[in-house]
Amino acid sequence: MARLQWPLLTEHNCIWHTGARCVLGAPCVIAFLAYKWRRRHLSMYDKVEAFLRSHNNLMPIMYSYSDIKKIIRGFKDKLGEGGFGSVYKGKLSSGRIVAVKILSKPKSDGQDFINEVATIGRIHHVNVVQLIGFCAERSKRALVYDFMPNGSLEKYIFSENGDVPLSCEQMYKISLGTARGIEYLHRGCDMQILHFDIKPHNILLDENFAPKVSDFGLAKLYPIEGSIVSLTAPRGTMGYMAPELFYKNIGGISYKADVYSFGMLLMEMAGRRKNLNAFAEHSSQIYFPSWVYEQLNAGNEIEIENATEERKITKKMMIVALCCIQMKPGDRPSMNRVVEMLEGEVESLQMPPKPFLSPQELRQLEAGINKKATVLPTPPNGSTDSATSVVSST
C-alpha cells in the first residue's frame, strides 16, 4: 500500500503558502470590515429614520440637503464651529433669517440628533430656542433654528471690551427668562426634559436680549412623575455639572442637576466673572461662590434699606444662586421656586446653609465614589467644582 507523503515544508514553500494566504485572505478581511462599517452606519440611519417615522407629528419642517444648501447660500456666511460641526446664517424663502447647524460628526447611533429633534421639536416657549426644521438625508444632518442676532450670553458676562455691556437690570431679566425656560422644560411639557448642559454659551439672546435656552444634544426625556433618572456616564460641562453626577453618595440624579447648573450660571451673571479664577488677586476669591457666601454670611455689605436698586438685584441673584448650588439635590429648590424667588423681594430671602463640604466630609464622600466616573478636582474652600472644560461637547 502506497504511503502518502506530505511535501517538504521548505523555506521557499513556506513563503509561497504564506503569501498566498495573505493574498487570498485580504479581500475577505476588507469585505468583512466593509460589512461591519455598513451595518453600523445603516443601523444609525435606520434608527434616525425609524424615529422620524414614529414622530411624524412633530412641528419642525423636514428639509432635503439641497434645500439646506440653498438656505445657507452655499456655506457662505459661517457663524461659528465646534465639536458638533458648523453653524451658518441663512434665509428661508419667506425671508425669515435662520441659523443652520450642520452636524459634521454625528454619534455612531445618531442619538445627539434624535435628542435635539425630540426635545425642541415638541415644544414652543418664549425662552427656549425654536427648532424650525431639520435635515436627515442618510449621513447628512442639519438643524434649522431661529437666528439669534446677539449671540450667546457668554460674551456679555466675560468679555471686558468690544461688546455692549449689559446693565444689572438687563442681566436680571435674562436670568429670570432663563429660569422660566428651564422651568418649562421640567414642568410644561408632556414629558420632563432634562437639559444637562446649562451654561452661558447655551443661552442665546435675540434682538431684544430675551434669553433662549439652546443646544439640547445632551438632553434626556423622562416621564413627569419620574423623580430619579439613570445615566450611564456623566454629561455636561465641568464647572456647571452637579456633584451627584460624580459622587454616588450625594443623591440620585434628577431635574435638580439642571437647578445646580443654573445656580452656577446665575452666580457668574451676578458677578460678571467666571466662578473659578486661578489668577484672582486674593486666594479667598479664587472660587467665587465660596467668597460670595463668606461675604454675605458675614454681613459685609451695605444695609438693604440704604442699598441701591442694583445692589439689591445683585444680592438677590447671589442668594438664589447659593440656594441652587447646595451640595445635596434634596436641598435645592425646584425651578418653579427659583422663579418665585427671583420675582420676589430680596428682603424675603434667607441665607441658605453653606453649600460646600468640609475636607473631612469630602474625604468621606470620596470613599464612596464610583470608580468608573471621572472625579472633579477640588477647588479651594472644599467645594466640588472645577475650571470650565468640556466633558461632553455638543
Short description:
With 394 residues, the protein is an alpha+beta fold. Helices cover 37% and strands 13% of the residues. The strands form three sheets. A six-stranded mixed sheet has the order 1-5-6-4-3-2. It has a two-stranded antiparallel ribbon with strand order 7-10.
What does this structure look like?
- Residues 383-394 have a biased composition (Low complexity).
- Its EC number is 2.7.11.23.
- 37% of the residues lie in helices and 13% in strands.
- It has 394 residues and is α+β, with helices and mostly antiparallel strands.
- The chain folds into 2 domains: 61-146, Phosphorylase Kinase, domain 1, CATH 3.30.200; 151-363, Transferase(Phosphotransferase) domain 1 (Transferase(Phosphotransferase), domain 1, Orthogonal Bundle), CATH 1.10.510.10.
- The strands form 3 sheets. The protein has a 6-stranded mixed beta sheet with strand order 1-5-6-4-3-2. A two-stranded antiparallel ribbon has the order 7-10. A two-stranded antiparallel sheet has the order 8-9.
- The longest helix is centred in the N-terminal third of the chain and has 44 residues, at 11-54.
Notable features of this structure?
single chain; 394 residues; alpha+beta; Phosphorylase Kinase, domain 1; Transferase(Phosphotransferase), domain 1; 2 domains; 6-stranded mixed sheet; two-stranded antiparallel ribbon; 10 helices; 37% helix; disordered N terminus; disordered C terminus; kinase; nucleotide-binding
Task: Tell me the quaternary state.
Answer: single chain
Strand tally is 10
Number of helices: 10
CATH topology of the largest domain: Transferase(Phosphotransferase), domain 1
Residues in β-strands, percent: 5-15%
* Mean pLDDT over the residues: 78
- Global geometry: globular
Task: Flag low-confidence runs.
Answer: 1-9, 302-306, 370-394
CATH superfamily name of the largest domain? Answer: Transferase(Phosphotransferase) domain 1
What is the end-to-end distance?
Answer: 76 Å
CATH class of the largest domain: Mainly Alpha
**Which second-level CATH architecture of the largest domain applies?**
Orthogonal Bundle
Overall domain count: 2
